[in-house]
Design a protein that fits this description.
This protein has 10 helices and 16 strands. By secondary structure, it is of the alpha+beta class. The strands form 6 sheets. The chain has a 5-stranded antiparallel β-sheet with strand order 1-2-3-6-7. Strands 10-9-11 form a 3-stranded antiparallel β-sheet. The termini are far apart.
């Protein structure tokens, strides 16, 4: 048991801490990055994380949901850290970012595919960086002798050809919305979502003039207003985090279904339980069938090797 437990809740962060004789566990939630979505609360094996819809003040925009973590239930496993689309939760052990469930191969990591081709980036730094709505792209321009150039457009054409473009992407906090692909020149960025799904809005069930889902959506363009002032979904940019679903005031007006999760290979009961909660029953069944087929194939291969050894 911990010698001491600490929970601190401020306007910008929520931190939980276990202080043991030989180890120190600390879980930190960055409220500025947190979207108040469903992912961590659904996946937590101890049901220690709760997402709460906040009351709305008339005349103001809807607030994003509040995430709280029960220190008495949390066992600092780090699953919330792994699955947070926005990288808002971090687990540190003795000051180091450590995920023992990954190291022990009992839980996968999400597959974030992000690839930049600096040669195709625009010479305008502001244009390049503003392609990311979460400001996770940082571009620097340097000459061959290492000097930083603030604006390559001020250089002559021969001088500009010798400028090296460095693109730094904060992958740790990227939800892979793919907006950068559409805003940058073709081929400059490649992004693939790690969550795939479907989102629909039934306008007949939406309360009049309601924009609660649009108010809290962390990805600009994933939800938008049509010409009639109605909120419409755009699955191209949606990362299926579920924040909109939490604040929707009308039952059945907004439905969202996660159909797949791109992750590193894993065989684990903990992951089976997580994916069962995160995705549709169809996707869970599909992944389970795949794992069963792999086990059957491995059994056949083992028997074949044994027969081969006996006949040798």
């Amino acid at each position: 048991m911990p010698l001491k437990t600490i929970k601190k809740d401020t306007s910008n962060s929520l931190s939980l801490e276990w202080i043991l004789q030989i180890k120190n566990y600390k879980l930190n939630l960055d409220k500025d990055r947190c979207a108040g979505c469903q992912i961590c609360s659904l996946a937590c094996p101890k049901e220690a994380i709760k997402t709460q819809k906040l009351p709305k003040t008339e005349g103001e925009k809807t607030h994003k949901p509040k995430v709280d973590i029960d220190l008495a239930k949390c066992n600092f496993c780090g699953i919330c850290d792994i699955l947070c689309p926005y990288g808002a939760i971090k687990l540190n052990i003795d000051g180091q970012h450590v995920l023992s469930v990954v190291d022990k191969k009992s839980f996968p990591t999400l597959t974030r595919h992000l690839q930049a081709d600096p040669r195709k980036f625009p010479a305008n730094r502001i244009q390049a960086e503003e392609a990311c709505p979460l400001k996770l792209i940082h571009v620097t321009y340097r000459t061959t002798d290492g000097k930083t150039v603030q604006d390559p457009q001020t250089l002559t054409e021969p001088e500009r050809s010798w400028v090296h473009i460095n693109v730094d992407i904060d992958k740790e906090h990227c939800p892979c919305c793919t907006i950068c692909e559409t805003k940058l020149p073709p081929g400059a960025m490649q992004a693939r979502k790690f969550l795939q799904g479907k989102i629909t809005i039934d306008q007949t069930k939406c309360p009049p003039n309601c924009k609660d889902c649009l108010d809290v959506c962390p990805i600009p363009g994933a939800l938008f207003l049509d010409s009639k002032g109605k909120v419409r979904p755009n699955a191209t940019f949606c990362v299926f985090c579920g924040t909109c679903k939490i604040v929707c005031p009308a039952e059945g007006a907004l439905t969202m279904e996660r159909r797949s999760v791109n992750h590193t290979p894993i065989k684990s009961g903990a992951w089976n339980k997580a994916i069962e909660k995160l995705t549709s029953a169809k996707e869970y069944s599909k992944e389970s069938q795949t794992k069963r087929a792999e086990k059957v194939q491995q059994s056949i291969e083992r028997k074949s090797l044994l027969r081969g050894a006996e006949n040798a």
